[in-house]
Design goal:
The complex is a heterodimer. Chain A is of the alpha/beta class. Chain A is about 40% helix and about 20% strand. Chain B is mostly helical. In chain B, helix 5 runs parallel beside helix 9 and helix 11 crosses helix 17. Classes of the chains: A alpha/beta, B mainly alpha.
């Protein structure tokens, strides 16, 4: 395990979760004999929810966990605030060993440091929007005036002013989820856990909420773990993405890494349908300038320039206006490579030169 | 044969199911399945062997139905063949004849002694008896002549049953086959074990039943057959046990109750005391306070809680009670119900919460709750009298037993109906268990709890008459009195008074709840 930097807000080390009566025996057997998920089910009647998960999330980062249903992603996120106890492993949030916390400390941690948004909103139907948002503060024993003030501010953040005195069932699904988000922000936590928050919404509303969330996220710099089953969403929102399958993390990387270097066939299948235009950048497809052999009559000094971090999308825009290849320079302005039309088309096609 | 592939597969599965006679069943099942209306499909084996065929093929519904039908037909045949039709009449004739002979002998004696008038009387009796005896004899002969008819009816019944068996068997077996396809544990093929069981059952049931219904002196006949084993030593017409065990156990029960009453007298007195103090407080409130105050408060409360219409209804109901001169005893009744309902809610809601949270506790308590609701009230009135004596507090206790289950059940139901996701969200924001209960679970369970409270109140009301049996005063006692003297008018007016009390409480509670919902 690489040394964790002080910037790491969440660190998971070799976390396992096994459901069933013989969980501990099954765990021991797995460590000794390296059993597979099916072996464990057959031998101990236990279901492996999470298998040997390790990752760390840096301060202010949006860390997406992507997987299909049953891949253990929702189970995994519930370990971070110990709604589910792990069978083995270490969980460290904000520098504190979560598993060593007693009940009171754990509750304090949940009420102050870790906010959570749920797929099915889980608002309290008998409370107004205002009181729903204020709920975490009420739990902490704050005064009514303080609760309402914070509630007002958080509702403003999600553009829900004017709905304070409504009840949740009077709001649309998208609005309800914004209330859920406001509630998670109300206690001003350092860590946000989002369990498929937009999955139950229709595509248009989902996109709006994604935009709104990204805007908020840039403003507030909350360290976020974002669960989703939608790779498009993960790529749009995530700084880094972890892909889970059968309780294991298959690959962790930036969206570009995931798209350009899928770790196995499973990930490759996912990535196949994803548009690469905004995910693949010039440095991934360019031909180094030393190896470039210009056609007759082509002069690179007339060619347009682009940064090595320009996306394929941007390169297509440039290429459409000229017959020349594009010269790629690095951050210091040094010319390091060339992208001509052939390279560009191949890049669009495969994501890789 | 060139059947489509899937049909072949179906046929193969019919073969696997039927095991023997596969071609026959394959053909008949196909016919049944392809028919659009009713189809006649004959099974000779089933017709011949009847219930035993069903036992062999594992169709026990067929076995039982046709066993009973065949038995009925056989009993008729038995009655026709050897049954002493009119046997009871013949017996009566013989008895009467003996009596006549006795009277005639007595008359002869009296005549010899010179008492002509006495002899005359005896002879008159004998003549009357003779008439009766002749009628009996005539009836007996008539009945005996019907033997042939009964026999014929029996035979045609048997034939009908056999036809039914034959035509019904394949349909029943086809249904069994369809069930077997989705549940392979259902019997397929033929089973020797089934036949043996079928035979055992037939031999246990058929002969005894046949004898019982075709022979007049069942036990004597049986004892003649079995050398006194059945019939004499073990009578068949009634179970050879009297009330011996019952008496012993009842005596022990008495002792047990007495012991408990002595041993825990203090506890019972304590409970009585608590109930009495609640009862006194409510009674003082309702009766001690001047009646105009109570009436105004009730009507205003109804108006505030449930609106103008229910307030008018309440005022009318109260006026009825007052003008019938039932005001005081109505308030006594309401105090009784109020105490019962109050205690039900006080104990029932915490219990309901507990049962809602703990599946195991609920499983344990469920039979007790069923018992409390289904046991007739009279049964637990007896131990209540033994432990708590008579009067109002035991009446309240009887009400508690009957009326508490709904509030417990509905509270538990409401608690379990709180969505897991909502509870999880609350926990994720750092709720303690107590905060979860007060802020999330109870508010969300409230509709169900309110229904429970309402039901409990109404069930308390239905207990007032029964509670009056053990000396609880009030409207119930009025009705009980009316019942004892068959005083129809009093009963009707008292019944209306109870009805109005119930409706006022129910309407106000429901109205208040609906108003809250809006």
């Amino acid at each position: 395990m690489q040394p964790t930097s002080s910037q790491d807000m969440i660190v998971l080390e070799n976390v396992w979760k096994i459901f069933g009566y013989n969980a501990d025996e099954a765990m021991a057997a797995i460590k000794e004999r390296n059993l597979s998920k099916n072996d464990v089910l057959a031998e101990f009647g236990c279901v492996v929810g999470i298998a040997d998960c390790s990752f760390s999330v840096r301060k202010g980062e949006v860390f997406c966990v992507m997987g299909l249903s049953g891949s253990g992603k929702s189970t995994m996120v519930r370990h971070l605030n110990r709604l589910i106890e792990p069978t083995a492993g270490k969980i460290n949030v904000l520098g504190r060993d979560m598993l060593a916390l007693n009940d009171a400390d754990l509750r304090a941690m949940r009420a102050r440091e870790i906010g959570m948004v749920f797929q099915h909103m889980a608002l309290l139907p008998h409370r107004t929007v205002r009181d729903n948002v204020a709920f975490p503060l009420q739990i902490r024993g704050e005064s009514k005036a303080k609760r309402w003030e914070v509630s007002q501010r958080c509702l403003a953040m999600v553009n829900l002013e004017g709905y304070e005195d409504r009840f949740p069932n009077e709001l649309s699904g998208g609005m309800q989820q914004r209330v859920g988000l406001a509630r998670a922000l109300a206690s001003d936590p350092d860590v946000l856990l989002m369990d498929e928050p937009f999955s139950a919404l229709d595509p248009l509303i989902r996109r709006q909420l994604q935009d709104q969330f990204m805007e908020l996220s840039q403003k507030l710099h909350k360290t976020t773990v974002f669960i989703t089953h939608d790779l498009d969403e993960a790529i749009r929102i995530g700084d880094r993405i972890a892909i889970m399958k059968d309780g294991r993390i298959v690959q962790i990387g930036t969206p570009e890494e995931i798209v350009t270097q899928p770790a196995d066939d499973y990930v490759r299948d996912f990535v196949e349908g994803i548009s690469k235009l905004k995910l693949v950048f010039a440095h991934s497809i360019m031909v180094p300038i030393s190896e470039f052999k210009p056609d007759r009559g082509q002069k690179l000094d007339k060619a347009p320039r682009a940064s090595h971090a320009a996306s394929l999308d941007a390169l297509i825009d440039i290429s459409a206006t000229t017959t020349h290849p594009i010269v790629i320079h690095d951050d210091d302005g040094k010319e390091i490579g060339v992208v001509d039309k052939t390279t560009l088309l191949k890049g669009i096609q495969g994501g890789k030169a | 044969m060139t059947e489509p592939a899937d049909k072949n597969h179906l046929g193969a599965s019919i073969d696997t199911f039927a095991v023997s006679k596969t071609t026959f069943y394959r053909r008949e099942f196909t016919r049944i399945q392809e028919a659009e209306g009713i189809v006649l499909s004959w099974n000779s084996m089933a017709a011949i062997f009847g219930p035993l065929w069903g036992a062999m093929r594992g169709i026990w519904g067929f076995f039982w139905v046709f066993l009973v039908l065949e038995m009925f037909a056989l009993v008729q045949i038995g009655r026709g063949l050897w049954g002493e039709l009119g046997g009871d009449k013949l017996e009566r004739y013989e008895r009467l004849s003996a009596n006549i002979a006795k009277r005639e002998a007595q008359a002869a004696e009296l005549l010899a002694a010179g008492d002509a008038a006495g002899a005359e009387g005896k002879l008159k009796i004998a003549t009357n008896l003779k008439k009766a005896a002749e009628t009996a004899l005539l009836e007996a002969q008539e009945a005996a002549q019907q033997a042939t008819t009964v026999l014929l009816i029996g035979l045609s019944l048997l034939l009908l049953v056999k036809l039914l068996e034959g035509f019904y068997a394949n349909h029943a077996y086809e249904r069994q086959y369809l069930k077997w396809r989705s549940n392979p544990r259902i019997q397929s093929g033929t089973s020797v074990k089934g036949v043996i069981w079928g035979l055992v059952l037939v031999f246990c049931i058929l002969p005894l039943t046949l004898i019982r219904f075709t022979v007049v002196k069942t036990d004597e006949t049986l004892s003649a057959f079995t050398g006194g084993l059945l019939g004499d030593r073990l009578p068949m017409t009634e179970f050879p046990v009297g009330k011996e065990y019952f008496t012993i156990l009842a005596a022990h029960g008495d002792e047990g109750f007495d012991w408990l009453a002595n041993r825990f007298g203090g506890v019972f007195d304590g409970i009585t005391h608590v109930i009495r103090s609640v009862l006194n407080a409510i009674e003082t409130l309702l009766i001690g306070t001047p009646w105009p105050v109570v009436m105004v408060v009730i009507v205003v409360a109804a108006f505030r809680l449930a609106g103008i219409r229910i307030a008018i209804f309440t005022a009318a109901a109260l006026a009825y009670l007052a003008f019938m001169g039932l005001w005081e005893i109505s308030m006594i009744t309401v105090a009784l119900i109020g105490t019962g309902a109050f205690l039900c809610i006080l104990l029932g809601i915490p219990l309901g919460i507990w049962f809602g949270k703990s599946q195991r506790a609920y499983k344990t308590a469920e039979p007790v709750l069923d018992f409390m609701q289904t046991m007739p009230a009279f049964v637990y009135l007896i131990p209540i009298i033994a432990f708590f004596g008579t009067g109002k507090p035991p009446g309240v206790l009887a009400t508690l037993i009957f009326a508490m289950p709904p509030v417990i059940r509905l509270t538990a139901l409401g608690m379990r109906g709180v969505p897991e996701t909502t509870k999880e969200a609350a926990l994720a924001f750092g709720c303690s268990r107590r905060q979860l209960l007060w802020n999330v679970e109870l508010p969300l369970a409230m509709p169900s709890i309110m229904t429970g409270i309402n039901q409990t109140i109404l069930m308390s009301l239905s207990m007032v008459v029964i509670a009056s049996l053990i000396g609880a005063e009030g409207l119930g006692a009025l009705i009980l009195e009316a019942l004892q003297y068959a005083a129809k008018g009093q009963g009707l007016l008292g019944g209306l008074a109870i009805l109005f009390c119930a409706m006022v409480i129910d309407r106000v509670a429901q109205g208040a709840y609906k108003k809250n919902q809006d």
